[in-house]
TrEMBL record:
NCBIfam families: oxido_grp_1
Domain Luciferase-like, first and last residues per copy: 32-343
Protein's name in the database: LLM class flavin-dependent oxidoreductase
Homology family: To bacterial alkanal monooxygenase alpha and beta chains.
Organism whose genome encodes this protein: Streptomyces reniochalinae
Length: 373
């Protein structure tokens, strides 16, 4: 990095919404990660409408965060523009924290992200999170189209420098003489004066990862860390250990704070839960073999003639998805918290039917006795 970790991490504020509060009988705070799945027979408009209902439910039932993930060129995922979706959700919620899970920083100029999330902070003051990842969130060709360059590896390797630059824009504190010293991300701290500027809040930065790189960087900078357990379960414990071992107290956090993404879907009966998660598994089979598409129907997934290799993948995938009745899901999630020591769980459900995603969140809220809507 071009400057020390303490200098680069900026002037974050303790108590700025990083640490969630466990509600009801949940052992840790519960949050939601939304990929805005589009199933066969549905449109992106249907999926976004379901996400709006789900965010309103999360807001009313005491979930801590509602994050949207950035993906590109995937017909079954309508979350290519997290900032746009979050602006919409801000108008339909009043309490839940809204954020990116995450923005793929190498795809964007840091100034653009600072402007987008400064705007979100102005729309929903005090409840915006900025989660950042270094993966492309898509295939190589699409990443090249997004970045206008074929040097994709260079973008990932430059992530620490991009991160430092973004935080400087968010804090509006480039040193005098820096080539960007006269550039301001607006809306942002530049619009506050005197005491108001000193107290100006900006979205807290989180680092996201599915391996050790971001875990170590988050630890060194004293930032909160979100790990993608839902698709990289084998790396969860090593990454969390690395984060905790390398953590240095900062202006943002006194001690480590680790959130993990967990695939979970509850239904009124076990069979329906399995039917829904099987659609997500088949969708992943197709994605991994270069055939991305809409999330298949439960009927199509049940009738699919899985090859032995595909069946092994599906069994492995579903082994990392907590699904079934609400009580079974709660039991599985509680065990995951105990096994990992996670400070917060962020639940995601890759399913065909929009209503199933909304119903699952409602059932999980009931299972944990979260506040009634």
């Amino acid at each position: 990095m071009s400057r020390s970790g303490e200098d680069a991490q900026g002037s974050g504020h303790r108590g700025s919404g990083i640490r969630g509060e466990a509600r009801g009988s949940a052992p840790v705070p519960l949050s939601v990660l939304d990929l805005v799945n589009v199933g066969e027979g549905y449109t992106a408009s249907d999926a976004l409408a379901a996400s709006t209902r789900q965010a309103a439910l999360a807001d009313a039932r005491g979930f801590t965060r509602y994050w949207v993930a950035e993906h590109h060129s995937m017909p079954g995922v309508a979350s290519s523009s997290p900032a746009v979706i979050l602006a919409h959700l801000a108008a339909h919620t009043s309490r839940v924290r809204l954020g990116s899970g995450g923005v793929m920083l190498p795809n964007h100029a840091p100034l653009v992200i600072a402007e987008q999330f400064g705007t979100l902070e102005a729309l929903a003051p005090g409840r915006v999170d900025l989660g950042l990842g270094r993966a492309p969130g898509t295939d190589g060709a699409t990443a090249a189209a997004l970045r206008r360059t074929e040097r994709l590896r260079e973008g990932a390797e430059d992530f620490p420098q991009q991160l430092a630059e973004l935080i400087r824009f968010l804090d509006d504190d480039f040193p005098q003489g820096h080539r960007y010293a006269r550039i301001h991300a607006v809306p942002g701290p530049v619009q506050a004066q005197g005491e108001a500027r000193a107290e100006a809040h900006r979205p807290p930065v989180w680092l996201l990862g599915s391996s050790g790189f971001s875990a170590q960087l988050a630890g060194q900078l004293g930032l909160p860390f979100a790990f993608a357990h839902h698709f990289s379960a084998a790396n969860t414990l090593p990454a969390l250990d690395l984060y905790r071992e390398t953590f240095r107290p900062s202006a943002v956090l006194d001690e480590p704070y680790a959130l993990i993404g967990a695939a979970a879907l509850a239904a009124d009966d076990e069979k329906e839960a399995y039917r829904q998660v099987l659609t997500g598994a088949l969708s992943m089979v197709r994605l991994r073999t270069g055939r991305p598409g809409l999330i298949p129907t439960p009927e199509e997934a049940e009738a699919h003639p899985f090859s032995p290799v595909e069946r092994d993948f599906v069994d492995s995938w579903l082994g990392n998805v907590t699904h079934g009745t609400p009580d079974a899901v709660r039991e599985g999630l509680d065990a995951l918290v105990k096994r990992t020591g996670a400070d917060e769980l962020m639940l995601t459900a890759n399913a065909h039917t929009p209503e199933a995603r909304v119903r699952s969140l409602e059932l999980i809220a009931d299972a944990y006795a979260l506040p009634a809507a």
